[in-house]
Design a protein that fits this description.
The protein is mainly β. It has one helix at residues 91-94, and strands at 2-7, 10-11, 15-21, 29-32, 38-40, 53-61, 96-100, 109-111. The two termini are 25 Å apart.
Amino acid sequence: VSGTVYMNGKPLPNASVIFTPVEDNVRVGVGSTDKNGQYRLTSFQTNDGARIGKHTVTIRAYEVPDGPFKPADDMSLSRGKMLTPAKYSKAETSGLTATVENKNNVIDFNLTN
């Protein structure tokens, strides 16, 4: 699973993207966007995607302090102000869903304030 995340029509860098399966939320697919807003999900092995089926999706981006680049899903990353509306950071309020099929799923998201 890959795609691009946009915020108000512009690519959103340094955002974490989490796909949580609706049926069994044990194994999520996670990724982070690059400087062009593009992401690729990992579940078991690097870039292997997400489980087949329906997912709720959460996306959040924070200001990144100066210094060497760290992906948005790096737990040691010190975060600043949240850049995305808080509603997108919770599965119950994000309103974002995705259906993952067999292979080569390209799923884009367009977030707004």
